[in-house]
Write a structure and sequence with these properties.
EC number: 2.4.1.-
Number of strands: 12
CATH superfamily of the largest domain: Glycogen Phosphorylase B
Pfam family, one: UDPGT
Strand content: 5-15%
Family: Belongs to the UDP-glycosyltransferase family.
Radius of gyration: 22 Å
Organism: Eleusine coracana subsp. coracana
Mean pLDDT: 84
Distance between the termini: 29 Å
Keywords: Glycosyltransferase, Transferase
Length: 462
């Protein structure tokens, strides 16, 4: 949101206020106020008990607060502000849509993932209507094996134009089908609430690039009745990312990378916010990295819930060849010539950063949209491979496939093609979309006029 705010402020004579819950605000380090360039970060009381440490509050606690406590606080804040032209709402915080509407303010959505994941949740009402899932998100078809290509298996799902069959999505890859039944029901209700509230929006800003799925899937990328502005490439601002990091990065990473040979280092990170990986899986990954015999840099939070699976004495045993830090300056790492591949959780921001810097990926999705993102990286773009398990042998085998031989060369070619798209034509389109959006904000006061924006672009053809 801060990256979007900075991009908007840079292109218009406006000030942008970014309102975040207090437990986010207290983690924003040096960026907890006015940056002097038109962007102000303010805190909204949430009532969430939080010590501000490495581990954020649990998801259930956050969702409850966002639905039952924060709306009234945001409404009180809006009542004290003058001259608001438009409210941009992160759709994962869809509770803010009716709050802004009650004040008669124009609302534009902001989807922080790729267009495909938005599409995968907007069809939920259709999936219920056509009898593929229940009202609580449970699959009604009993003959679907998790390993099947879900969309291809259900031929009549093609009429819904969910996502291309080329992705080879499995039923369990849908964003709400995770963990146990209770978790699935809760997540399904969360996504369904977003879909219902977002229906009132006529324009949505998307943190992705135009034609992300290629020419053959262009028809899948555009849900009817809404207009979309792809701005993702314009938000990949290295300086701003450094300022807005929620975690203190270990800058010694770069000095260490400087001592390594070009293209030799395995970079590993499973994000900073998603649920930590189970200890036994961390054990397998750790042993697999050691077995490669290659240098590696692993960003792994220094917290028992994240490091419990490291073998005894592991950090000491791999010292010199392997470097483990709590958090790395990711942009600086990915653009370093020593990095040869990225073992990742498939979080969308990480995928975009890897593509921007031309780094091959090994995908190990954990939750939420990671599985759809992984399907695009592996099956649509051919820019990476999927890690089938955390087993030591699988880790070693995947690293060797990506870092060596003909397969590694083909992956790098595909990554380079996407890099050209994101840093070239897609970046130009993203900047144009931001300019169009700002022109409407500045020149129009009518709520309906605020969102009449569109664009024509050529999709990426993988």
């Amino acid at each position: 949101m801060l990256q979007l705010a900075r991009a908007l402020a840079d292109r218009g004579d406006v000030s942008v206020i970014v309102a975040v819950p207090d437990f986010i605000h207290r983690r924003m380090g040096q960026y907890r106020g006015d940056d002097g360039n038109g962007v102000v970060l303010v805190s909204v009381p949430s009532g969430v008990q939080d010590d501000g440490g490495d581990e954020p509050p649990g998801a259930a606690v956050i969702v409850h607060a966002m639905e039952h406590q924060v709306p009234s606080q945001l409404e009180r804040m809006l009542s004290t502000m003058q001259g608001i032209s438009c409210v941009v709402v992160d759709l994962l915080s869809s509770w803010a849509i009716p709050v802004a509407a009650r004040w008669g303010l124009p609302v534009v959505g902001f989807w922080v993932g790729m267009m495909a994941t938005y599409r995968s949740v907007t069809v939920i009402p259709e999936l219920i209507k056509t009898g593929f899932v229940t009202g609580s998100g449970t699959l009604l078809s009993t003959d679907v094996n998790d390993e099947d290509n879900f969309i291809k298996h259900h031929h009549d799902l093609g009429d819904l134009h969910i996502l291309p069959a080329k992705l080879k999505l499995r039923a369990r890859d849908l964003p709400w089908l995770v963990n146990g039944a209770v978790s699935q029901k809760t997540r399904f209700a969360f996504w369904l609430q977003i879909v219902k509230r977002a229906k009132s929006l006529r324009s949505i800003i998307v943190n992705s690039f135009p034609g992300e799925g290629g020419i053959e899937s262009d028809g899948y990328d555009r849900p009817q009745g809404q207009q979309f502005l792809h701005v993702g490439p314009a938000l990949l601002n290295e300086d701003l990312k450094k300022k807005t990091s929620m975690w203190q990065a270990d800058q010694t990473c770069i000095d260490w990378l400087d001592t390594q040979s070009p293209g030799s280092v395995i970079y590993v990170s499973f994000g900073s916010w998603a649920a930590p990986i189970e200890p036994d899986k961390i054990t397998g990954i750790a042993r697999g990295l050691e077995a490669t015999g290659r240098p590696f840099l692993w960003a792994l939070k220094n917290h028992p819930s994240w490091r419990a699976g490291l073998p005894d004495g592991y950090i000491e045993n791999v010292a010199g060849r392997g470097k483990i830090v709590s958090w790395a300056p990711q942009d600086d790492v990915l653009k370093h010539e020593a990095v040869g591949c990225y073992v990742m959780h498939s979080g969308w921001n990480s995928v975009m950063e890897a593509l921007r810097h031309g780094v091959r990926m090994i995908c190990y999705p954990i939750c939420g949209d990671h599985f759809v993102n992984c399907a695009y990286v592996v099956n649509m773009w051919k820019a990476g491979i999927a890690l089938p398990s955390s087993d030591e042998r699988d880790v070693k085998d995947c690293v060797e496939r990506v870092m060596e031989g003909e397969e590694g060369r083909r992956l790098q070619e595909k990554v380079n093609e996407l890099r050209e798209v994101i840093t070239g034509e897609a970046l130009c389109v993203a900047r144009k979309n931001i300019n169009l959006f700002m022109e409407e904000i500045i020149n129009n006061d009518e709520a309906d006029e605020c969102t009449e924006i569109g664009q024509e672009t050529k999709p990426y053809n993988p």
